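Hi F.,

I've been meaning to write this up properly since the lab meeting, where we talked about keeping a consistent format for the predictions we share between groups. The idea is simple: the sequence comes first, exactly as it goes in, then the structure tokens exactly as they come out, then a line or two of notes. No screenshots and no reformatting. I'm using this chain as the first example so we have something concrete to point to.
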Amino acid sequence: MAENKVALKMVVDGKERDVTFEELALSNNLAQEALVRLLIEKNLFTARELLEWIEKVKQERYRAMPEKSE
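Output, unedited:
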């Protein structure tokens, strides 16, 4: 069984704790979902608007890179 690599070390109540990349990713996903739900509940944007922005960011981030001229 593969070991989970440590992403960071935390000190909680004076005790050091290792946090794995898996735990860190899960924590980030939970926080992001909570934030999105709260913002939608507060009517700051709709779920449809969020999906449109996700698509926009995806297109910007993964657009084709210009070819290098030699």
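Notes:
The radius of gyration is 19 Å.
The first strand starts at residue 6 and ends at 12.

If this format works for you, I'll send the rest the same way.

G.
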